[in-house]
Backbone:
């Protein structure tokens, strides 16, 4: 089975991936931020590196989804290939940080790749307001994230909401991050119950 966790920067995807994998004994697939050769450059100069970064992510996540399906294991994945295509790349294009030529090239690549992959069996969307995102980003203290603009996070949030409102390719669970602290056992148990209900409950 493939469980994927979606959400804006700082919404808690990595934390929930780690906690769910520990609780259920699932194999975690984390977003590889430390070894990404473009991420630091991107935050320094978004316009110059946006296309390179998005193609890197597209390739990386496409391989990840293929590996997940071929593994025969139940895997929980930190961020999905769909977020890059429906949220991050279009957002960069609309902010004039990616040219139309690059965006069309990127979109064509995604359209082709999406024909070869299956959507996750369950998508967990971590919904969060911008102040909560900012607080979480500051708490983890990654140097390259210090320059993220508030309007960038706000635009991403709007695109997430638009994407989730039309998501119909599999089961969907929405978790309101503002109302919980995943590190608190009671709050984590609440989320785990919801996940169990989606995967094993009566519909």
Residues:
């Amino acid at each position: 089975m493939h469980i994927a966790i979606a959400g804006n920067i700082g919404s808690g995807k990595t934390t929930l991936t780690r906690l769910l994998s520990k609780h259920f004994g699932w194999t975690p697939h984390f977003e590889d931020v430390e070894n990404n050769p473009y991420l630091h450059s991107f935050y320094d100069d978004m316009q110059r590196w946006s296309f390179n970064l998005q193609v890197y992510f597209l390739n990386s996540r496409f391989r990840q989804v293929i590996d997940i399906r071929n593994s025969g294991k139940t895997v929980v994945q930190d961020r999905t290939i769909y977020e890059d295509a429906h949220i991050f790349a279009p957002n960069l294009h609309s902010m004039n940080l990616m040219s139309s030529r690059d965006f069309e090239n990127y979109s064509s690549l995604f359209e082709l790749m999406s024909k070869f992959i299956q959507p996750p069996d369950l998508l967990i969307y971590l919904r969060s307001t911008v102040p909560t995102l900012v607080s979480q980003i500051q708490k983890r203290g990654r140097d390259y994230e210090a320059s993220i603009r508030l309007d960038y996070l706000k635009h991403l949030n709007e695109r997430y909401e638009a994407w989730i409102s039309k998501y119909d390719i599999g089961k969907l669970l929405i978790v309101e991050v503002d109302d919980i602290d995943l590190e608190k056992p009671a709050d984590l148990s609440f989320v785990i119950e919801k996940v169990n209900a989606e995967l094993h409950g009566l519909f």
